[in-house]
Amino acid sequence: MAKLIQICASQNDLFGLDGDGVVYQYNFNTNNWLKLGHGRDRGESALTEEQTGSGQPKPERRSAKERRSRPP
Fold it and tell me: Are the beta carbons of 18 and 39 closer than 8 angstroms?
């Protein structure tokens, strides 16, 4: 198993992420890490356009006067 670079814990679960993007879940019954995913390809970005929000349209900016005079 690779070195984990990030750990996420809740009351009942423990997850880890390695440098290649592979996600692991800790099994408390067997005291082992279970591999959940395969990670990402070398050429693939860590975040997709949808995850970064760059694919979303920006909200229209209106002045206070415009907001009072017309509905959204």
Answer: yes
